Amino acid sequence: MLPVRGRDDRAAKAARILGTRTAWTPVGDGEFFCPGCGGDRNYQRLTGRRRLTLLGVPVLPRGTAGPVVECAACGHHFGTEVLDHPTTRRFSVMLRDAVHTVALAVLAAGGTSSRTALETAAATVRAAGFAECTEDQLAALVDALAADTGRYFEQPCGAGLTIELHESLDPLAPHLAPAGRESLLLQAARIALADGPYTPAERDALATVGAALTICSDDVTRLLAAARTPS
């Protein structure tokens, strides 16, 4: 029986004689969140062709490879599904816009007559990234939505706002941890509670937010109750 080292040497020698090589061709580029580096990086999208090599010289085609995504920083290759993950900058914008849309939905359900609710909503939106947001701006946007859709505040969350909530939250939800989704719903709940107990319209709006965030109805009920309990 040959020693293990002898077999390894023979395998290495055979690999030097006969092997495969992949020639990569760039077919696109952009910016992505690199799971290897843990940050936003430039990438190249590559497709490849495999060839059988003899003594290092390509001799026969062996089919295609890829496509893959190559990080310009670390050089690692990843499947193209990594491009589905938003960059850090894109994620921040998505989260900021989601908070803004949720705040508008809650205010539209409860009305804009409460200064306390407007102040709470504006503070929440500013903390999310809209640093110049004011109470008056939010009130004007809610009034514009009501005029555009013919909605009355005491009615449940209207179809237009429901669509806007889903357009804003559906792409974001898969990239939020459960705690992040719950935090977003709790922020909305605190806006609704700023001027008193939930109204039926506010509960409907919050249930729509929870559904768009893929939070089950039982957990939505639990979180809305928890938001009413002083910490």
UniProtKB/TrEMBL annotation:
Domain (Co-chaperone DjlA N-terminal): residue spans on this chain: 99-222
Alphabetical list of InterPro entries matching this protein: DjlA_N (IPR007791), TerB-like (IPR029024)
One Pfam family hit: TerB
Name of the protein in its database record: Co-chaperone DjlA N-terminal domain-containing protein
